[in-house]
Amino acid sequence: MKKMIIVFAAILSMGSYAQNQRFVYEYKFVKDSTARDETKSELMFLDTAPKGSKFYSHEKYVSDSLREERIKIGGRNFSGINFDFVPFVIEKSYPDYNTVFYGSLDMDQYKVSDGRVQNWKIVSDKAKIGDIEVQKATLDFSGRKWIAWFAPDIPIQDGPYKFHGLPGLIIKIEDQTQSHSFTLKETKKLSKNKEWQSESEKKNSKQFINVTPEKYKKQFLESRNDPAKGLKEMASGSNKIMLVNESGKPLDISEVIREREKNAKAANAKDNNILELDLLQ
Predict the structure, then answer these.
(1) Using CA atoms, how far apart are residues 138 and 122, in angstroms rounded to an integer?
(2) Range of the domain at 258
(3) So what's the pLDDT on residue 262?
(4) Domain total in the chain
(5) Which UniProt keywords apply (predicted)?
(6) Which residues contact 213 (CB under 8 A, 6 or more apart)?
(7) Is the full-model pTM beyond 0.90?
(8) Which residue, 22, 21, 5, 24, is CA-closest to 13?
(9) How far apart are CA 21 and CA 1, in angstroms?
(10) % of the chain exceeding 70 in pLDDT
């Protein structure tokens, strides 16, 4: 990782500053509240362009690219590709900051428009992160209390994940339990030739199920309670499915379902400290 850029040579207008910039954040999180010493870390990109921003995992970007290359040449073997990454993608449109969450549950992909108002409380506390002058703000959001440090001299009202609306770029934000934190580590200028594409544009928009946050929460809880529901429905449908392994050998669908349920429930038990805690409530 390159050293954090701590001095911004020029303060530009919000419109010009938002064009083709990449803000690289380190996301640290604790998945299991009973094992708080086990912290995971992942690099996340906030790519900004005149029409909006996209927030996503660096590992997801690499994994998706490799998988798509193999699919194009008819490959079925995805060994060596890392699938252990933060899976969601967040998009915000400018200047209204309409926020859209893209994520998967079971065998379906969802598109969730999140119009919740973020009622920030800006306080007088000021500090420095590196050489960046920052100011403190607090927020109750998604079942957690958040503390943010934003840079008034960087005139873009955006930040990691769904966070936005402060009068300056969010440099660091952390929840009160210190379970989830995002810290700016680097900035890059992206090529003007790099066309910003939303997930809906990049993929077939029909792949996504458009739901409200309330409907997504219902589906989220159903998926945790019955993690093999999609496979069961496919197996019991009129069009029978056949699953094969990397060598093309048919698999026993009943055994696959049992294994999916076992593994998913074990994983969920250790994933009890999710970012949006109110999804479990």
Answers:
(1) 7
(2) 213-280
(3) 85
(4) 2
(5) Signal
(6) 112, 113, 114, 116
(7) no
(8) 21
(9) 17
(10) 73
